[in-house]
Specification:
Shape: globular
Low-confidence stretches: 1-12, 15-96, 217-221, 226-261, 300-314, 415-419
Organism: Polynucleobacter duraquae
Keywords: Hydrolase, Metal-binding, Metalloprotease, Protease, Signal, Zinc
Number of helices: 27
Strand order of the largest sheet: 1-3-4-2
Cofactor: Zn(2+)
Radius of gyration: 24 Å
Mean pLDDT: 74
Protein name: Zn-dependent protease, contains TPR repeats
Distance between the termini: 11 Å
Structural class: mainly alpha
Pfam families: Peptidase_M48, TPR_19
Length: about 575
């Protein structure tokens, strides 16, 4: 298997994101995002199963039967004179061609290519924000007993939401519950309910198993698309132009054969997303509001666009459909969490890399800080603190950060802990203290933040950075070992554990942890090599050496299995 270097992954990543494996959100601007590029944005998520259209037309109407599984929305939310619009739960419609285990396997294979890519966002507060929102939506889906949400054991999806450094407005779902958000979508949204409406849509794609249904009915087309991805990956290191052609060629055949099914799947995802959004307490007007604003901003109409954009449901139809459902839900005032505005600032930072972009970004933040809306002011001052921190101007960073905190405290709703405390503010405060050489203060803030947000990756990483800065390597190793046992598929913990072992001068375990990191990034030969180095290094006790040997054999089997999927032989 040819290993693609990190420097070569960026173009591959973009092609993977545009590939047939991805269930695209296809917001009105999303099609045009890719219209200028080599690959169309009409992708696997925009298809549905043959013959499903008529069923959805019959079932997608107002359903008043109390026996309907999807009729669990509180009746007080709907005016008594009108029926409640509900999504018929299609259950587990995936066929035998792609099991849930297969979906997870394919999703993990794709993620191993995505994680080390430069366009993959490693901003942990953004990661925390997106996954906290997804957990809230999934809890609502479970209460509604939507198909797949209550799945247990090996068949359950391990939902994970990550960000992509891209200023375009788009989101997508991968097999197995992986969901990606472009930073441009976070920046463009005006409320967290708008972000949640997008996430609910993508969750609908996953729960309704649209990819499995596509592969069940369109196996040949999907295999053509898969082949295009693999060929494009192999060609990327030699000839990017040829790789693009291969990807396009594979897609063209598959897309051409799937045009008649795209609209039903998108409508189905819209409907289940709306149901989840309403049940989770977000503003149900988030989706139609976002659609309308994007339509005005882009000027996109339903005619005069490339054919692969027309495979998405008509913008006007989707807006009208969402507005009709929203009218049947009682109006409620849903405040936007202050964290949303700080995440917007972090998303702007993520998609601005060069020094010239940083200069423009600073001007943007200064402009926002002078606006009258408190949310924009918070985004502006917090963004200015991030820029100052990155430039090493710690006094400025502290001043801007305090102004952002003061604004957050002034607008927080009484008795609302999500509005009263901000993960991003606390993490940046800890990072600033550490940068100033105040390790004990940084550690104290990080520990308090982790206590308040026990599922936070950012807080855990901030605590580890403080431990290592203070030379408390044993504390860091103990915590990271426990965390890697609980979350063995998280690159961030293995990377930090490798650094901790390095600081502790434990050579074999440093290489062992590094091998696990490489394996999660899909660099199997490098991962195996690291474990061989760990096995041959002195210093490991009997238990550690046995664990390394066992893991090396397991890793070699996993690498062989993945090569078999691709019809290759493992190099000697």
């Amino acid at each position: 298997m040819q290993v693609i270097k990190t420097s070569q992954r960026s173009s591959l990543f973009k092609r993977i994101l545009a590939s047939q494996l991805i269930l695209s959100l296809a917001w009105p601007s999303a099609g045009f995002v890719y219209a200028a590029g080599p690959a169309p944005s009409s992708v696997a998520g925009d298809v549905s199963v043959q013959g499903e259209s008529a069923a959805l037309q019959n079932l997608g109407r107002a359903v008043q039967s109390p026996d309907a599984r999807s009729s669990n929305l509180p009746s007080r939310n709907a005016p008594p004179s009108q029926p409640s619009f509900v999504l018929p739960d299609m259950g587990d419609p995936g066929g035998d061609s792609l099991s849930r285990m297969d979906e997870k396997k394919y999703g993990e294979m794709i993620m191993r290519q995505i994680r080390p890519d430069p366009d993959y966002s490693n901003d942990l507060p953004i990661y925390d924000y997106l996954n906290q929102m997804e957990r809230r939506l999934l809890q609502a889906a479970k209460r509604l007993q939507l198909g797949g949400a209550n799945e247990q054991g090996s068949g359950a999806y391990n939902f994970e939401v990550f960000a992509v450094k891209d200023s375009s407005i788009n989101a997508f779902a991968l097999p197995g519950g992986f969901i990606g958000f472009h930073t441009g979508l976070l920046v463009s949204a005006e409320t967290d309910s708008e972000v949640a409406s997008v996430m609910g849509h993508e969750t609908g794609h996953v729960l309704q198993r649209h990819l499995a249904r596509q592969m069940d009915k369109q196996t040949t087309n999907t295999m053509i698309a898969l082949a295009g991805i693999l060929l494009g990956a192999l060609a990327a290191s030699r000839n990017p132009g040829a790789a693009s052609g291969l990807m396009q060629g594979g897609q063209a055949v598959a897309v051409n054969n799937q045009l008649s099914y795209s609209r039903d799947a998108e409508r189905e995802a819209d409907r289940i997303g709306f149901q989840i959004l309403a049940a989770s307490g977000y503003d149900v007007n988030g989706a139609p509001g976002f659609f309308q604003r994007l339509q005005k901003a882009t000027g996109i109409m339903d005619s005069g666009v490339p054919s692969y954009v027309r495979t998405h449901p008509l913008t006007t139809d989707r807006i009208a459909d969402m507005q009709d459902r929203a009218r049947n839900i009682a109006n409620r005032n849903v405040p936007t969490a202050v964290e949303f505005y700080f995440i917007k600032a972090r998303a702007r930072m993520e998609q601005s890399g060069s020094s010239s972009q940083m200069y423009d970004l600073k001007n943007t933040f200064e402009s926002l800080s002078k606006q009258s809306a408190p949310g924009k002011q918070m985004e502006g001052f917090y963004g200015l603190s991030l820029v100052a921190l990155k430039q090493g101007k710690f006094d400025q960073a502290s001043s801007y950060l305090q102004q952002a905190r003061n604004l957050a405290n002034s607008v927080s709703a009484p008795g609302s802990p999500i509005l009263r405390q901000s993960l991003s503010l606390d993490i940046t405060t800890s990072e600033l203290a550490l940068a100033r050489g105040k390790g004990d203060e940084a550690l104290q803030i990080a520990q308090a933040t982790l206590k308040a947000f026990p599922q936070s990756y950012a807080a855990g990483a901030a605590m580890m950075n403080a431990y290592l800065k203070l030379g408390r390597t044993n504390d860091a190793i103990t915590w990271l070992k426990a965390r890697t046992r609980l979350q063995p598929n998280e690159v961030v913990w293995w990377s930090m554990l490798s650094n901790a072992y390095d600081q502790a001068k434990n050579v074999p375990m440093r290489h062992y942890a590094l091998g696990e990191k490489y394996a999660l990034e899909g660099a199997w030969p490098s991962a195996i090599e690291q474990l061989k180095i760990a096995r041959s290094s002195s210093g490991a006790d009997f238990y550690q050496a046995s664990s390394i040997d066992a893991r090396l054999r397991e890793m070699q089997r996993e690498y062989q299995d993945e090569l078999k999927e691709q019809g290759k032989n493992m190099p000697s």
